[in-house]
Amino acid sequence: MNRMKLFSCVIVFMVMASMFTGCFGSSESSDDDKPKVSNNSNNSNNINNGINNDDNNSGNNDNDGTNNNNNNDSNNNNNNNNNNDSNNNNNNNNTNNTTSSSVQFGTLIDAYILTYGYVEDLTISGNYAYVAAKSGGVVIINIVTGSEVHTVATNGETWDVLLDGDVLFVADRGGGVAFYDISSVDDNTAPVSVASVSPSFSVDSVAVGKAGTLLAVGGALGKIQLYDISIIGSPSPIGSTFALSSGQNVASLGIAGDTVFAGDGDGALFAIDITTPTSPSESFKYEATYPPGHEPWGLGITVDTANNRLYYSNWGAGFIILDITDPADIKEMGRFITGDGVYDSFVKGNRAYLANAQGGLAVLDITDPQSIELVSYEVVKHKIKKSGFDYQMATHGVWLIGDKVYMADNAAHSVAVISVDESSL
Fold first, then answer.
1. Which of 73, 258, 311, 355 is geometrically suited to a Cys-Cys bond with 302, CB 3.0 to 4.6 A?
2. How far apart are CA 239 and CA 130, in angstroms?
3. pLDDT tens sequence across 309-362
4. CA-based Rg of the chain, rounded to a whole angstrom?
5. Contact at 8 Å (CB) between 160 and 110?
6. Cα–Cα distance between 255 and 273 in angstroms, integer?
7. What sign results for the dihedral spanned by CA atoms 239, 270, 337, 391?
8. How far apart are CA 275 and CA 259, in angstroms?
9. Using CA of residue 17, residue 19, residue 20, residue 24, what is the dihedral sign?
10. b/e map 36-71, b = 16+ CB within 10 Å
11. pTM to 2 decimal places
């Protein structure tokens, strides 16, 4: 009888202990319980991946968060609080190596963390992303394997990268604009230097027009220089340097026909008539209204010549759709304000994908420019783990491939990959 009582007491004690542990035990999973990704590249410079999925789709329209790749930080004092340009060596391989075809809209699929440098802008061709990494030059990532395969050194800071066919244009604040042939790039073959231009000012932005024969270079003090690049290996200046009437840095550029569009550091958009390229002249100045306390800043321009539209990413005034049918009389068609931080956009069809520097990714339905709406009703936000810390994404550039967007994240210094597969909505 005593043994039975003792046995019963032991059973009760074990049950109570189990309940106590369930209520008060640690809820954190160990690293072994977290999803892993395998680095499938044989290249020795594999990028470290870090994802914190606790905040998937946690954003909303009240929080602050094209493509011509004109997302340039001409005013270096604007809310870039995460710029530690140190060696970012880490081993946070906590991510899912999956494809977005079966992934919920807004899911963070991968985060490729650079070994060194910021992440200011990006452009993609084939299997390779070309990342403007400021003092880190241009970092080339194989987006299939997630490997950092090449680094192109620059003399100063790389703020803008632009692809036109097989030519990569690199805006280097300390060294002008360098041209590279990327036609043979693979994991073992780096871009080949073709030519360069060195205007008399610090460069922030570039644009190509006239069927690839005209290069516009913009930068400090509102200065713009045009170049004839019809012979890519032998560029030549056209006329003298032109300066915007505002005198503010040229943060973004775009070209449509005989017009160069320039976004400046105060958020104004200028239309510059280049009918006579040797004698450019301002034909229109558009200034957006903006909410009190929000700082305007003309960071990104995407020109849609087929529809006579220009998509303007203005830090404080929002994402703005402009009718440029008559460049001498630009009209606003509509806008969407997510709060300070609209850096750049990639537009395809009736969707606009925004790099929202204080939020992450905003996907917009722009079918009706006067009634722009968020797809999925919220800004997509994520935290990326690097060196043991979680960094809220601060995106400065965006590129769309299929149902994935690749984002230049300046907080964790990464290229973040996010699913935009709307079939899951």
1. 311
2. 31
3. 999 999 989 999 999 999 999 999 999 988 668 999 999 999 999 998 877 999
4. 24
5. no
6. 10
7. positive
8. 8
9. positive
10. ebeeebeeeebbbbbbbbebbbebeeebbbbbbbbb
11. 0.78
